[in-house]
Amino acid sequence: MDARLRRCVGFGAVAWMALGVRAQQVDVSLTLAYSVYVVGEPVLVQMECLNATRDRIEISGAGASASLFVEISSGSRFDELEPFNRAPMVRELRLNPGQSFQQKVELDKWFGLTREGRYIARLVLVHGGVRYLSAKRSFDIVPGLPVTEGVQMFVSRANTKRQFKLVYWHRNQNDRLFLRATDEPSGRVWDAVDLGTFLRREPPKFDISPEGEVTVVHRSTRDAFIRTVFWSLPDSLEVAERNSLLDPDISASQRLKALYSESEGAKAGDKDGKEEKAKKAWWKFW
């Protein structure tokens, strides 16, 4: 009986120690906004961290006891990418026991993610000499399906030109139109801009003015367009204006239908009025 009791006590102690170790964990997770990104599109992710230890965790800042970062490999776990931006992804942060935090970051602002292919990312928290790892998340960088393209030349910089490409990609059950831009010969890749839903039955209108105004008009729904205007200068590329436009043909036909319905309604009203008057006139003789 003593031997059995000792075995039970030993087993219970081991189980209790395992539960204690598990209780002193930090849960980290990484969530991708999409599984596929167009070249140049911001690779948006959400980092989450839960402090399930008994200690306060300080990330970044003076006296930090932990560090939080993302590891990315290209296609293979052995081909790890080196970040070009050494700034911390998270500013000074203190997590008390039981406290959690969430933060969205664009991974392309730390890693060069302009090459087409598959990437694998995971979130890492180092605290007390222990590495806490999130599950690995994979995503693809694709060029997009071509629609049209254009070139902008700069008067002030004769040796520089900007290559624009309009591409689309199917996402969330819709085709979406993107504007990509790359400078030559520097190879600088500007952030690709999501222009919204895109109906492929009608090609978009794409115009580059000598003053640096880039305009894209594309059909987004059956009866509407989206017009996006960019200012493209040698050292900047930004959205200046964006608005929705109704299709003039469809809106005109809809207006005609509405007028026709109103006219028919007025005629019906006049007819009913005359019949009512006729009935009243007939009833007057009784």
Provide structural commentary.
The protein has 2 helices and 18 strands. It folds into 2 domains: 23-141, Immunoglobulin-like (Sandwich), CATH 2.60.40.2970; 144-248, no CATH class. The strands form 5 sheets. Strands 2, 5, 8, 9 and 10 form a 5-stranded mixed beta sheet that branches. It has a 4-stranded antiparallel beta sheet with strand order 11-12-13-14, with no helix packed on it. Strands 15-16-17-18 form a 4-stranded antiparallel beta sheet. Helix content is 20%, strand content 47%.
Short description:
The protein has 286 residues and is an alpha+beta fold.
In what range is the share of β-strand residues? over 45%
The name of the CATH architecture of the largest domain is Sandwich
In angstroms, what separates the terminal alpha carbons?
116 Å
In DSSP terms, counting alpha (H) and pi (I) runs of 4 or more, how many helices?
2
Note the main sheet. Answer: 5 strands, mixed
Explain the layout of strands and helices.
Elements: H1 2-23, E1 25-32, E2 36-38, E3 44-52, E4 57-59, E5 66-74, E6 93-95, E7 100-106, E8 117-127, E9 130-133, E10 137-142, E11 145-153, E12 161-171, E13 174-184, E14 193-197, E15 205-208, E16 213-221, E17 224-233, E18 236-246, H2 248-283
Parallel strand pairs: 2-10
Antiparallel strand pairs: 1-3, 3-7, 4-6, 5-8, 8-9, 8-10, 11-12, 12-13, 13-14, 15-16, 16-17, 17-18
Any key phrases for this structure?
2 domains; alpha+beta; Immunoglobulin-like; five-stranded mixed sheet; 286 residues; disordered C terminus
